[in-house]
Amino acid sequence: MNHTVIDKIRSLGDEFYLLRISISPVQEFITEARKTRDLHMGSRLLSLATLESMKPICVNYGREFIIYPHLGNSNAHSSSTPNLYMAVIQKGELEGMITRMETCLHDFWKGVDEKVRNKISGFNDWKLWDHQMRDHFYMNWVAIPITSEELKNSYKSKAKDAQRFLDEQKLTRTFEVWKGDNVTKCVQCGHRERMPDELFSKLRENKKFKMRIKDNERLCAVCLLKRILNTSDIKLDKIKFESVSDVSARPFKRSIEDDDAKEEMNDFLNAINDLKKCLGEDKVYIIKDLGGEWFYKESLRYEYLKKEYKLEDNSELEKLAKNAHEKLDKVYKKIESKPCKYYVIVSMDGDDMGKLMSGEFLDDESFTIDHQTNLSKKLSETGKKASELIEKDGNGYCVYSGGDDLLAFHAIKDALQTIKKVRSSFGEEFEELNKKPTSSAGIVILNHHDPLRKGLVESRRSVEKAKELFKGKDAFFITLRVFSGSVITWGSKWTIDNLTIQEESISQIQVIDLLERVVFFMNKDEKHGLSPDFIRDLMGELPAFYRYNKRNSKWSFEGKMFRAEFERLLKRHIPKESDVWDDLWEGNDKTLCLMKEVFAYMADPDRNKQYKKSVKDNFENFLRIALFLAREESGRPDKR
User: Fold this and answer.
1) Average pLDDT of the chain?
2) 405: which strand partners?
3) Cα–Cα dist 372/133, whole Å
4) pTM of the predicted structure, to 2 decimals
5) Distance between CA 265 and CA 583 in Å, rounded?
């Protein structure tokens, strides 16, 4: 291996500092979002702030002196730069370098602040704004002295010291207290004071912000900045901020374009344009440019439009809304489908990435600065590949993908297979390393009318549940928020390992594959498909297979009885002529036996001891989620 990094460092002398820096705040800045615009701008601002703070090191030494993350040779701004980084600088440069880094960070934030202020005319009371914006981004950092000899022979221990000291340092922060009265908080973040009403009156006078800020929204300075800022203000390419309705309606929009429904589609588009003209909105020329909300009947209701656009009674608007509603209904009938009202938020974290990046799984001799640099490059490649997989089929997009963490949106359609591919790609990039890393995911399914922030918080919480509830992590946790108010949760390891089916050993079964296949079976036509009544009947029988032993306070599972009833119900609810029986599953054509054994495995408490909650309830929720997904993916009411 050519030690290019360490050779360049050692050519500068014998004494250095190993810097570990994090830019804060992170999660609260990103997840404080009511619109996808807030989320995207928060993510991009954090990435850019991190890159700006790195500039003095890159200019003074070169990009290769940033050990983590991997910056490559690109000069383009990244939207997924991790907020934590490691670097090496000369010992005598520490004080001046830290000062320049903090100045760059401050100047970046100040420049963004000024861009937004210049958009607001006629408002003069900036006192509260100044307080909330002042030093919102800040650096946590530690510097560990290290010699050229230690860089070569003792790098692992020094890197671990840097990690430990920064973790301790981040527990404290000096901040200036705002002295004020009891006031109404920002409706978005919920913890900063909202800006005065006068400011929002000024914003309503500007047509550019009319649809960005609702009349009842009162935001703090930081949340308002994310809402007003444009990507061009921070020298990024123009981005179309798709709403969650756009995401949930993506497959339906594509099906209209591909289907032989041109006449109905054109009539619908003309009706929408007539309605948009009445509402003072621009005309749309092609279906793919039409916002997702227009494909839902409830968004075309006259009363809804009056409330959304703050309009008085208008007979012409009522007539146009009714016409658009009728044209959309004709499109539904023509293609025999409706847009799904639900979408998926995916959060994914690498397990024990701190240990991997600090060399805990390698001996001191193997974990060198060059090895860590190589890890950084692998993480960068992983992040890029994950983003490409999410966006490949056209039904999803990434908010950020930093390699060891990911946040993405996806339509219900094909979401399971995409998630499985992303998870697999994470490990593939590290195949040649001594330890193949694993990942845990939080998957939230929610209605496009549910508050976005609720879904974002739940997705992070689901990741933590996956890590907490399963030994060894490497798991996922799905939270289904039904719009009626009920919440259904199901967690599982990614794989079931070492099953024996009719004396044949199967090394591994992907659990996401199982869920996806059951949904696929239920969405086949009536001649070949699995009736959803199979799931309902199985849930009805489920309590009979469990026995509670008061003596040892444990549940037992009647596996033999479960298998017999499972087989009876499956045969009853799959037509004899169905091609499901011939379906190949990883080279095994014994579909009935395989499904029976896998379901029995998932339902058995003794075989799921790694799960720390009720296995019966967890298995039942798996069935509920399968039933829900089958209904939603089909795009039609469940009539069977």
Assistant:
1) 86
2) 349
3) 36
4) 0.90
5) 36
